[in-house]
Amino acid sequence: MFIYIHVSKSPKFDRSSEIVSVVVGKRIILPCYVQDASQFKVIWMKMNNSSILTMDDRAVNGDSRVTLLHAYADEWNLQIDDVDEDDAGVYRCVLNNGMYKTLTLQVKTPPQIIDEQSTESYPAPILSGSNFTLKCYGSGRPSPKIRILSFDQAENTKIIGEHNEVILYNVSRHTRKRYECIASNGVPPDVARSFQLTVQYPPEITLLLSTHDNTIYNNRNQLLVDLAQELRIKCQITMYPFGKIFWTKNDIRIDKYQDNYEQYASSYSDNHVVAELYIKQVNYKDFCSFSCFAINDLGINSKTVHLVEKPTSTTSTTTVLTTTISMTSTSSNLGSERLLYSRGSYINMNKQRQRKWPKYSTLTNSTSLNIIHQREAENLRVSISSKGKQY
């Protein structure tokens, strides 16, 4: 007599627990390998809502996305297609003897910007001198990392924060205007939001003076000019919001159609304007003060230039001529005589004396003139030697 004792092996799972992850919208397979489970039933359950998904080799929850993969005796894998965020949670592969394997499904989602908690792309204008807080909050699984960047006019970037909020202190028109928030969590694609700031500020003026010789002067409050020259006075103005611009002469507003003046304005960007006052011909009445005014809701500013007549430089000199004359006579014993004279004195002296030179007299030596500059001529001296007094 033979007695057979059948000893059944206990089922054994490949592991007791496991964590799997998937990107939303993709397919995921939850693995469950059980040895020696032929005597038992296998059930898949989702523990979040205690729902039964499969029993043995068939799906029982009515979700067409859920399939049991049982190609081999030990394989009891659960496949979920087109995973959504609600599929995340805890699953169990359970035997009807009470043994089970636990799987945690993590569904990854790409980052998104939370509109309700973040600064809008074009916030309301910011008053110059105030502080402004840039906010950027994101969602996603895992939670995204936040970076806030600033851009200069050349599109160079700089990271100014890696938190959800960044405070910009004492904002001015020179503060960088463009910013960007980037949220990333390793699940593509990253998401970004740009911020374009608008700053309100009172007028700022730079004075430019252009003369007839094209010389440019910046912010001079006094300028020497010639009569009858033409002159261009320019104001480079920046302000936001845009307001009014006008010119005054001695604090009296200049009419646009005044004869000797013409006014122009040109814009080279949204907030920058060049206003020009053209003086066709400077006259005596223009030697005064000219001012450029700019006004907006936040203030008023002006620049003034004083036109002053350019002085004329004159130099007065007195010229004294010193002449030396040497004479020799061949028919008489006259000797020589020397005269020191000015041009006028010599003429007067000749008129008074009415003297004639002998026919045979000749000038033998050259006459040299030395010009001497001085303020007042000294008294003329005439020195004649005693031998030359009689002819």
UniProtKB/TrEMBL annotation:
Coiled coil region boundaries: none
Domain of life: Eukaryota
InterPro entries registered for this protein in UniProt: Cell_Adh-Cytoskel_Orgn, Ig-like_dom, Ig-like_dom_sf, Ig-like_fold, Ig_I-set, Ig_sub, Ig_sub2
Domain annotation Ig-like: ranges: 11-104, 111-198, 203-306
One biological process term in Gene Ontology: synapse organization
GO cellular component, one term: axon
Alphabetized Gene3D superfamilies for the sequence: Immunoglobulins
GO molecular function, one term: axon guidance receptor activity
Name the record gives this protein: Ig-like domain-containing protein
Record organism: Didymodactylos carnosus
